[in-house]
Backbone:
């Protein structure tokens, strides 16, 4: 018997099922996952957004210190200098958490997108944006703003100088940028694959438990 899935009136497997609102179905499944035993089977279903957010914040921290070193700002650095970079990591984490949960995790839980490859691509785009594009761009411009406000010699005075400086800086971070991109893509692929696996495991076990309880009730009624 199918306890939860897409409602298809012409499918005999869905006999006895009824439609429910998306938010209601999601709340029900989230409640099941939150109290499920053994808990390790639903750990990622309950925490995948946090994992995505944590991994997305790593490049923000790395590029904060990397850009400061490239600009020579690590010399005589003061704690208050970091105020320029404080919003970057939380913003990356929040972006990754919110979009991963809404567009990837909840989609997999509710089986809204039949094409798993589409979900994989969507997840990769979200994770790369949150973990590479946003932190790299924000930390670089935060460094430029700091350099401008403190009259650092490397600050470019015109667009041509900015272009030359940017090309030179990014040539020096090319290797770690590629490595961090691979990490983000690897994290995304793992989360999608494992979410599908854990969801199928839990829902299969839930249906098996339900069928077993129904058998016990039927046996009890026959006595």
Residues:
């Amino acid at each position: 018997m199918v306890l939860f899935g897409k409602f298809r009136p012409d499918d005999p497997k869905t006999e006895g099922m009824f439609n429910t609102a998306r938010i209601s179905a999601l709340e029900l499944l989230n409640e099941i996952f939150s109290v499920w035993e053994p808990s390790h089977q639903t750990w990622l279903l309950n925490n995948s957004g946090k994992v995505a957010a944590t991994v997305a914040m790593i490049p923000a921290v790395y590029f904060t210190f990397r850009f400061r070193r490239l600009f020579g700002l690590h010399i005589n650095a003061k704690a208050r200098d970091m105020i320029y970079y404080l919003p970057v990591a939380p913003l990356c984490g929040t972006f990754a958490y919110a979009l991963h949960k809404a567009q990837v995790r909840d989609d997999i839980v509710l089986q809204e997108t039949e094409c798993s490859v589409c979900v994989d691509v969507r997840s990769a785009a979200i994770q790369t944006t949150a973990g590479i594009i946003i932190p790299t761009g924000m930390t670089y411009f935060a460094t430029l703003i700091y350099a401008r406000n403190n009259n650092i010699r490397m600050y470019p005075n015109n667009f041509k100088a900015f272009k030359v400086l940017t090309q030179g800086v990014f040539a020096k971070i090319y290797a770690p940028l590629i490595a961090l991109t691979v990490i983000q893509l690897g994290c995304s692929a793992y989360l999608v694959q494992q979410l599908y696996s854990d969801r199928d495991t839990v829902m299969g076990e839930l249906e098996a438990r339900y069928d077993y309880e129904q058998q016990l009730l039927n046996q009890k009624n026959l006595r």
In short: The first helix runs from residue 22 to 35. DSSP finds six helices and no strands in the chain. Helices lie at 22-35, 43-70, 88-110, 116-149, 159-172, 174-222.
